[in-house]
């Protein structure tokens, strides 16, 4: 039940659908208030008559659908005169059997020139002759209405005098009633005036008998859908068809048409043949041959289609198409479609060189591998290029769009691309839509897109993008409005923190930013990128910094300990033995090459002299089985008051001597009573001495003993050396006089 004023106040409502409601009562004012209603659907609402349908006040109504109801009468109620805008009336699948002259009286008084009427699936038995005389309609559809060809013939004759733009006859795929079809059935069409004719789903349509079209020679558009036609030959010579459609008509061979008037030919879904046959259609402008499994041994030139006026050519969803011509004579082409056909030799030369007027080109999924960089030369007017599902040499997109300066839409999806040349898009200033989805791009390198000053939509979804460097993101065109990065392999790690922050900042630019998921690392898998927290990275940075600093300090300490191990060892010994009494008066550092002088001169004069001095010598006093370095420190430095350094050329060239000397310096610094006595055996070359910078400086800053092999030189040398050794030596006063006399004797004997 729908009561009065049920829709009151809905002044702007344009569509009302009541389908499937078992309406039992409609008040006269049920639809009042719907002052803007344009479409009313009352399918399966138990409506029995149009007379009782209270819609006479709906002056804005354009479409009325009352299909699948219980309407028996075709009579148009008087209120239809109040529906001047009605364009479509669907009365299909009702109970209408007879149509009489009185039923269309309203249309005769006030013709609805744009009305399309659908009476399909009504069990028509009779149409009174003259009922449609002088009636003007836009379209009339009669499908699956007749239970025999005889009834169909009578009803078509009842349409005599009808002036109509488009007439549709036939049956539905799953509603086939007629078991046979006689050619005389359509003879009544000679009494109608119409521009377009469509006939569909007659399984027993007359074969090899073109006389069935005798009453259709004056129509402009004819469409034959799902008819069992073996061939279409010998059409009436005076045919004026401008548009012919042959869809799924089971033709065994390609029709060899000769229609000078034909401008548009649609031949699709006819899979009963495999080879294309050339035809002669001199005025043809539109040719659609898709989904026929046709093979073209040589394509394409004007000789294939018998015309030089072709503007639209669709060869999609066919078999092998071998390119051996660059569209000679087809220079007016504006639309060309090869998608899902197997193109051959398209890479051998500039196939499209002649097509300077082409606006649309689709070579998607044509098994084309782009090697020849001049493949698109000549397409200076192209606005749309679709080449999805193909491939490129080395999976690199090269600079092949040089002449496509007017391109607006470019589809490169599913091309297995891994890289994009920096100059790939440099000549596309007008490009607005670019599809790079379903490729194998590893990073979002935006530098190639920088020249695209008009780009509005960029789709990089379903790639393997992990991140994009911060400096590269700056190259995105300012005109970009939508960027799709969903379904990629994003790594949500701190290393990519700048990119992750960019995603958050640009969520208005990014399509489906909420659906952008992390794939790495494992603990972040399937987590939205927008959930990534930068604070985690700051914490990690602090932890890593502390850890690195700790490792660095430990490493430096280890290196220092390793490098100055013996110096530290010496420091520990100084603390241990610093206050004890020394065993030796001096530890002698010398080169083994100078050992004769040490034994015969130094040892003999100091240990056998007066007073005697006890020297520490490595060949005599070092403990066997102990490391040399340990002996040097423990036996040499720890137990000696002084250090005698015998400097010679051999000394300077000995690594062990230099090592002992460096330890001696540290020992001198650590021990308050330590002293180093330098003895220079012979004149040293300054260039050689400068190799040991510290030793050279010490000899320049400190007094040293220089050995001279003469009586006076020896006397001065031993006197000065003993004096240096006596400094700090524990002394017994009672032995002073004796010691002096013995010293003089020893000196004299020397």
From TrEMBL:
SMART domains the UniProt entry points to: LRR_SD22, LRR_TYP, LRRCT, TIR
Organism domain of life: Eukaryota
Keyword Transcription regulation: no
Gene3D superfamilies recorded: Ribonuclease Inhibitor, Toll/interleukin-1 receptor homology (TIR) domain
Pfam families membership: LRR_4 (PF12799), LRR_8 (PF13855), TIR (PF01582)
Regions that span the bilayer: 542-566
Start and end residues of each TIR domain: 582-725
Keywords associated with the record: Cell membrane, Cell projection, Disulfide bond, Endosome, Glycoprotein, Immunity, Inflammatory response, Innate immunity, Leucine-rich repeat, Membrane, NAD, Receptor, Repeat, Signal, Transmembrane, Transmembrane helix, Ubl conjugation
InterPro entries per record: Cys-rich_flank_reg_C, Leu-rich_rpt, Leu-rich_rpt_4, Leu-rich_rpt_typical-subtyp, LRR_dom_sf, TIR_dom, Toll-like_receptor, Toll_tir_struct_dom_sf
Protein name in UniProt: Toll-like receptor 4
Gene from which this protein is expressed: TLR4
